[in-house]
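We modelled the chain as a single entity of 322 amino acids. Its sequence is:
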Amino acid sequence: MASNPAATAQQPSTISIRRLGVFLGAQITGVDLSRPLEPASVEAIRSAHAEHGVLVFPEQRISGDDLMRFGRYFGALSVHPFSTSAAQHPELIVYDNREGNPPAATDIWHSDETFRECPPMGTALCAKTIPELGGDTVFCSMAAVYDGLSDRMQQFLSGLEAVHDFKPFKPLFRATPEGRRRLHAYEERYPPATHPVVRVHPMTGKKAIFVNPQFTLCIKGMEESESRNLLEWLFRRTTTLEYQYRHRWAPDMLVFWDNRWLQHAAVHDYYPQRRLMERVTIAGDRPVGDAPPADPRALRRYLMPPITAFEATRHKRQHDLD
């Protein structure tokens, strides 16, 4: 993983950007990520990242140290609490999926770690060993999803908030007293987070749908069936083919994507072939919505008031007395 300590910063001006898709995706050439970058190169990549969402850097023979250095140009590296990290560098995630070690549930549309109060702004993933067939990653522009909605639906979604949770990782904890204790500790560390359904990108001002089937539980304050139907309808919008870019990996290829307006899913069609990848995740800011949070009184109507609204006068139940 050691990088060349004698490497000097390369000069900018050779970076070339070629679009790969209509709504997202661009290939970046003319840059060597095994060497430090000049500030002008970093800013060019930062701008392209916000504009195109998915940046593909082919033929990058880089070490784990090089990958971490690249990520730090764009912010602090975060540590995923439920991933397989390198022994000496918890910021460096290593996915080594092969026979006997199948991939985790990343074949579900998601934006990385939205269960955090401040989800990651971006993720950089570098391919080391790829299967002969399969193992693609599919990306979807959630800004295109938003733009494809009617004016009336955009207005309806404005100001709504959704609750996110680390639910897919909870089965990792054993159903034992110690497992339940450890799970409770992580639930205290990462309580459910509330994010706007329509998120505004801090650099471009793009509006994007910011809910995903992996981490989003419900629309805050909305009746359960209405919330479920609305979320399932929004989740299905990622299946619109023109909003997608499907990436085919090659060895020594790095892909850097923007979690603020994209979702992705890894295609699990390669097992038991080997797929070895290294990843870093860049910490982000608290998501900002397109409008103030909706008035709770406008989200739910009670023909029969809930008993929780009458704490002083309702009859006590056994759990209240224990």
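As a brief sanity check on the tokenised model: The radius of gyration is 22 Å. The CA atoms of residues 199 and 205 lie 9 Å apart.
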